[in-house]
Amino acid sequence: MIKFFLMVNKQGQTRLSKYYEHVEINKRTLLETEVIRSCLSRSNEQCSFIEFKDFKLIYRQYAALFIVVGVNDTENEMAIYEFIHNFVEVLDEYFSRVSELDVSFFKAMSQVFLSTWQSTG
């Protein structure tokens, strides 16, 4: 099960976040900081799957954007990795080469795509 979905830039600023389990606002900030730090500190040669606390992080980098998905231990990592790729392809098709600015300025549209993609598969 997916716990959260984050899109962040290389500076560690969150551009889009969606939580599928309740997390208090002050704990979200701390969680995002730790998650982002652990993903940004890894090199390109390292695996994109990270064991983190009581869940797994699956992330993928596209230019200046990192997409990070937190899942429970029973979730298939490769399926989530492919989900990330397909989500970016949808954004690319809609925005014709999606960028960090597109996600920032059209956050509502990005969330609609994510919610629709998540709920309907």
Automatic annotation (TrEMBL):
UniProt GO cellular component terms: cytoplasm; endomembrane system
Membrane topology (UniProt): Peripheral membrane protein
Keyword entries, A-Z: Membrane, Protein transport, Transport
Gene Ontology BP annotations: intracellular protein transport
Subcellular localization(s) per the UniProt record: Endomembrane system
Domain AP complex mu/sigma subunit span(s) in chain numbering: 1-105
Domain of life: Eukaryota
Primary location class: membrane
PANTHER family to which the protein is assigned, alphabetical: ADAPTOR COMPLEXES SMALL SUBUNIT FAMILY
Sequence similarity: Belongs to the adaptor complexes small subunit family.
Assembly description: Adaptor protein complex 4 (AP-4) is a heterotetramer composed of two large adaptins (epsilon-type subunit AP4E1 and beta-type subunit AP4B1), a medium adaptin (mu-type subunit AP4M1) and a small adaptin (sigma-type AP4S1).
Summary of the function given for this chain in its UniProt record: Component of the adaptor protein complex 4 (AP-4). Adaptor protein complexes are vesicle coat components involved both in vesicle formation and cargo selection. They control the vesicular transport of proteins in different trafficking pathways. AP-4 forms a non clathrin-associated coat on vesicles departing the trans-Golgi network (TGN) and may be involved in the targeting of proteins from the trans-Golgi network (TGN) to the endosomal-lysosomal system.
Protein name: AP complex subunit sigma
Organism this protein belongs to: Panthera pardus (Leopard)
